[in-house]
Amino acid sequence: MGRKYRIAVIEGDGVGPEIVSEALRLLGELGFDAEYIKIDAGWKYYEETGKPIEDDALDKIRSTDALIKGPVTTPVGPGTYRSVNVYLRKTLGLYANVRPFKSFKNVSLRELDVIIVRENTEGAYSGVEERFDDKAISYRIITRSATERIVRFAFDLARKLGRRKVTVVHKANILKESDGLFRNIFFEIAREYGDIEHDEVIVDAAAYKLVKRPQIFDVIVTPNLYGDILSDLVAGLVGGLGLCGSAQIGENYAAFEPVHGTAKSIAGKGIANPIGEIRAAALMLEWLGEKYSDEKLKKLSRAINSAIVRAVEEGKVLPQDIGGTAKTVDVTNEIIFKSKTFLKHSP
Questions:
Q1: In the listed set 221, 238, 255, which residue is the last one of a domain according to the structure?
Q2: pLDDT by residue (tens digit) across 71-92?
């Protein structure tokens, strides 16, 4: 496929190593030429070393073209290590968390085609907290620069993909300063994109409308916490977290992962759903294809996504979390077979 890519890999915790290995196997079977650089991170590594991520991780990652990762455990409560995901987003400048959701016939609860663009570096996940005896304070930071950047990203993405509308989701009726700033900047920038519709929805109303009338949404742009919560809601409408992947994009680098957690209860049983990780791999190929003008990667990404849709909607080889009986490896094999078929017949 021309250029040989260098890809950083964080296997993660729980089912992470299983689904990451399946996604990489699929990429290899389909001819993606890459060197993989393993990065140690997560709960298992922390138990072994006392560190949530290896010391030279950033240097290794920055030497690669992209990062693909599995889910990583973030311990709950005070006194535990900070999220590896948040650390990577901040240090690598991965300001845009892009989560596309599209329904499957016979599987999804609603018909929808929505992209959630979530500001990825500040808001409620700024990580600035203080504790005073029995009082805890968390600082929710919204800045003009980060908001302008994510709003422009959402409109540019909508324009590139031929989308019709961008909706800002906020709680500016209550959080008048922080969400008010995010909202006002959205409407300032929206004037620069006269070819794209724009509107606003309060976050609680957005949750309701996504369940009742998801077709009114196209591209959503929102602060960090809201995007995190609404993504799980929409994944439920699609059919399950295991069907969805995400991209975390910065100016010059990007990371790709499924939207679900570590699913420790089924780790090692060979029944984890690999589709979210495979979706993430397809998003990685699309991003690399755009960055390096590699049409073969774009074609491969389209074939994988089409294969996933065909496999899920046919329903013959489905993972257990969406009602099937297939093993992880069998689901991957089905997608590999269908991807090759699409590649064979595509121009």
A1: 238
A2: 998 887 776 677 898 899 999 9
- Asked if residue 260 and residue 275 are part of one domain, the reply reads yes
What's the pLDDT at 81? 75
Domain coverage including residue 77: 1-100+239-347
Contacts 24+ apart (CB under 8 A), 38-42: 38/9, 38/10, 38/11, 39/8, 39/9, 39/10, 39/67, 40/10, 41/10, 41/12, 41/72, 41/84, 42/10, 42/11, 42/12, 42/13, 42/16, 42/72, 42/73, 42/84
Query: Do the Cβ atoms of 120 and 89 come closer than 8 Å?
Result: yes
Q: What is the pTM of this model?
A: 0.94
Query: Could you give the residue ranges of the DSSP H alpha helices within the chain?
Result: 16-29, 43-49, 57-62, 84-92, 144-161, 178-190, 203-212, 224-238, 275-291, 295-314, 328-345
Do residues 193 and 286 both lie within one domain? no
Edge-first strand order for the sheet with 254-258 is: 34-38, 5-10, 66-69, 254-258, 245-249, 96-102, 113-119, 219-222, 165-170, 197-202
* Residues in CB range of 290: below 8 A, 6 or more apart: 298
- If asked whether residues 221 and 113 sit together in one domain, one would say yes
Name the residue with tokens 């800002």: 168
Number of domains in the chain: 2
CATH code, domain carrying 320: 3.40.718.10
Q: For 223, phi and psi rounded to 5 degrees?
A: -60, 170
Given a contact cutoff of 8 angstroms between Cβ atoms, the answer to whether 169 and 230 are in contact is yes
